[in-house]
Amino acid sequence: MTRQEHHPSMPQPAWWLRRRDEILKIADGQLNAYVYELETVRQSVQRLRDLQSIDRVLYAMKANFNPHLLRLLASLKVDFECVSPGEVEHLLRVVPDLDKSRILFTPNFAPREDYQWSRDLGIQVTLDNLYPLQAWPEIFAGQKIFLRVDPGQGHGHHEHVKTAGDRSKFGIPRFEVDELVSLVEKAGADVVGIHAHSGSGIPEPDSWGQVATELARIAARFENVSVLDLGGGLGVPGRADEQAFDLQAMDQALALVKARLPGYEFWLEPGRYLVAEAGILLTHVTQLKGKGNRRYIGVGTGMNALIRPALYDAYHEIVNLTRYGDPLAETANIVGLICETGDTFGVDRPMPVSHENDVIVIANAGAYGRVMSSRYNLREPPQEIVI
Question: What CATH code is assigned to 39-275?
Answer without folding.
Answer: 3.20.20.10
